[in-house]
Amino acid sequence: MDIGIDKIGFYVPKDYIDIVELAKARDVDPDKFTIGIGQDKQAVPKPYQDAVTLAASSADSILSAEDKKDLGLLIVGTESSVDESKSTAAFLMDLLDLPEDIRAFEIKQACFGATAGLMTAYDYISQNPDKKALVIATDIARYGIKTPGEVTQGAGSVAMIVSQNPRVLKLNHKSVYMTKNVGDFWRPTFSKTAFARGKYSNEIYVDFFQTLWDKYQAKYDATIDDFDTLLFHIPYTKMGTKALRTLDGKIDADKYAELTSHYQASIRFSRSVGNLYTGSLYLGLLSYLINGAKAGENLLMFSYGSGAVGELYSAEIQPTFAQGFDQANILKMLDDRQKMSIEAYEKMYQVEYENGTIVDPETVSEKFYLSEIKDNERLYKKA
Ligand code: HMG
To answer: Which catalytic residues are annotated (predicted)?
Structure first.
């Protein structure tokens, strides 16, 4: 039975900051941010948006009434959760109007969460072929103002419906993975912002990719010629470039040029959105599907979540792939965003809603929003 991604949806907040303006405000040469880091714009969420509302928005863009009827599993991958007990998935039941005979939960392992969800959904569909699973990656990546990680922030969400006979991407059930206890990046429960050993995290990421690629070749007797495209977790677009470069000189020059050109197509959206944490690999997939993919191509996908877990797996683009997402809408959403000044971003960044907060619906420009915090409970509304 073929199992994989049948539909893919994306949501990005309506505001962004310009990376050249950020560089100037931080007294940094703009080339460092645009070339050295490889970013152009960074998505900035509103204070009344969080992992729940971002997730609701991407899922809402793809869920049909028939999908809702067939859903048996809902998994949300996030590391920006709003509650240490109740899952983001539970909040979504009302917002998305989902039937209650669903197993719904949240997975956390840094940027690996969505891949863990996707693999769990694969197993679920193999046992329940007539059902569907919804996997959502949702995050707000925050390091703090004037930190080295600030340029690698971002926010957004990717939702995927997993089913048999998928229209977009067939998962080949060929995968290698690894886990190590590594202190490259972490966010203690008391902190809204992450801590990172930046350069060390880059080294670990590249090490994981190299180890997994060696493992994959040995396990499946594979070579680079088995793949048309390599997609990477993209915390910032230079990071995937660094992993890809480990192949330079080791593989045929034409093949390397082809992989590099396909990688460029996969990072177009990330350049103008920033880090989605667990959604980043899947934003890269969507960018590739819209900007370069051809039916029948074989993909090698590298998922990495700090802490650290890595997985390298293969997938095949289906002939019907263009039916599985709303290209016009996604491009319009990216184009219609508004630029914020760096001052306005800094101000918004400091806004913290507390117990007792009530958000005035007149000030809300999004369909899903945090409406109130009452008795320390977060309450959401759909406009
Ligand atoms: P930094 O210290 O500001 O930057 O930190 P740098 O000095 O390393 O410079 C960055 C690059 O810009 C270098 O290129 C410079 O040469 C270049 P590279 O050597 O890397 O190829 N550069 C210039 N280029 C052109 N013109 C110039 C110029 N000046 C310098 N004038 C760092 C950068 C990424 C470390 C920082 O932003 C950071 O700590 N980010 C957060 C951590 C991170 O994203 N790590 C990625 C791997 S871990 C991961 O992917 C997991 C993650 O998504 C979390 C999760 O799993 O949940 C982060």
So the answer is: 79 (proton donor/acceptor), 111 (acyl-thioester intermediate), 233 (proton donor/acceptor)
